[in-house]
C-alpha cells in the first residue's frame, strides 16, 4: 500500500532534453517592463549565438576577415568585433550556438581557438531619441555619432558593469556578462523611465 501511495503522489513531469528545450534567458522576466517604455524607449534582449576566436596565425586572420582594433566587421553569416590583441567575439542570430561555433571552427581549419561563448554574455538593444542620453548617465565615453560611428566598438563601464557597446541602425547594442544582465536591465529601466514622459531629445551643444 505504501508503494502505491508513493507512486500516486509522484506527479513530477520529466522532460528529456532536446533541441526545442532551451534554458530561459536571464532577461526573460523583463519583457513586460521593457514594453512599458515603448515606443519612446526601445529596450529589449537580443539573444545571439556567440563564439570567442583566438587566431594562431595570419592565415586565420585573413580567412575570417577579422576587424582591426576597436572595430566591427559584418559578414553574411556573422558579425565580429575586436576584444583585444588576438581575441575576437563573433555572433549571429537565428542559429544554434554549437552550430555557429562549429561553422567558424571549420573555416579557420585549426588555425584559431574557437569556443562557444553564448552563455557568457547577454546582448541588449537600446533605441529611441534618448538612447545616447540614457547611456550617458552611466558611461563616461562619448557615444555621439561624431565620436562613435556605426562600426566602432568600445569596451567600457556602464553603471559600473563591464560592457561592450556598438552602434546599431536604430540605437545601441550592449553586451554584458550574463551574471550582471539583471542588474543592468534594472539600471537601464530606471535611467529610461524619466524620459518616457518627455520624449523630446535635448538639443546638441
Automatic annotation (TrEMBL):
Residue span of region Disordered: 1-21
Domain of life: Bacteria
Official protein name in the record: Sarcosine oxidase, gamma subunit
